[in-house]
Amino acid sequence: MSESVFGPRIIQNLLDTDFYKITMMQAVLHNYPNAEVEWEFRCRNDEDLSPYLAEIRYQVEQLAEVTVTHDQLAYLEKIPFLKPDFIRFLSLFRFNLRYVQVGLDAAGQLAVRVRGPWLHVILYEIPLLAIISEVRNRYRYRYRDVVIEQVGERLYQKLDWLKAEASAEELAGFQLADFGTRRRFSYRVQEEVVHILKHDFPGRFVGTSNVHLAREFELKPLGTMAHEWFMAHQQLGPRLVDSQAAALECWVREYRGLLGIALTDCITMDAFLGDFDLYFAKLFDGLRHDSGDPLAWAEKAIAHYERLGIDPKSKTLIFSDGLDFAKALGLYRALHERINVSFGIGTQLTCDIPGVAPMNMVIKMTACNGAPVAKISDSPGKTQCRDENFVAYMKHVFKVN
Description:
With 401 residues, this protein is an alpha/beta fold. 44% of the residues lie in helices and 14% in strands. The chain contains 18 helices and eleven strands. The strands form two sheets. The chain has a six-stranded parallel β-sheet. Strands 2-3-1-10-11 form a five-stranded antiparallel β-sheet. Helix 11 packs across helix 12.
């Protein structure tokens, strides 16, 4: 089908993705270039996306035309921890469509599966989610009637609330980042949100996870690692009980003290802290929260640092799970005197439009080197694995109830 049948290409360039995909991709190139992985799409709210199958397929096919430009490569070359061999590899990278399948499952629901070399499929996740979200929004809502002015008005209402609610001292220390690529209403909406935040956010707008927008707006691209980094290590060689420590150790070797924010909830916070000993606690700058009660999680982190003899004020906690401004401000007030805090807001920035219900969806790794992998979250609804026996075994190994 021609472009005249469907809308314009959604993913315009290779950098329209989250930064942690780039950082993990380099680590995969240098450490696990031959690892094979599988991914599956999951719509958590069971929304019927089958009516949008044809355009989703079309947009996925358009990924084969996406490349990285010389200007974009020059931008990446200025990031000191991205190595020349990785930049050269990225210059040759193409989305290979034989690694992705888009169709309907036995129940007639949208099914997306990615299978292939980790190095060659790692960049699929974020564009696929952005495509599914934007295509669905084009059809479900009067897409062209969701004007950018609405987006701006809604965001300025939030900024006005924050300015009225927070003191000048609180605003001076309140740090916010955009983490909204994967579930955005559209690329244009995210672009407008980042533009407004850069110029008018009353606290400190520290950057965006979207590499392309960071480049366009001269912001810092933000991100380190995702759940897949820890999940893959469950089948990459070490004993399962040693997999988290192996993932952290490999990251340390790759980045030598840079990109030092570790994600904690692949196998619950308690299991993570069991592996996060003095060595790692000193090497990593802080931790990122992505599931479970954020205050309970923060208390565990602070207590862990104190037990190790580390001043929590020398570390940073980053919160990124379903935040809005009110939740973030509440966490800031509760914690900032005891430990540094920062906030990444996604859906509540890039898909918070009157009358629009955001997508609740993920694409998660399900296997590595032909064997199952799992995520046992601090939020039960986020646990994901297609092999119940492996989940039970992992809970036994890591003493998870």
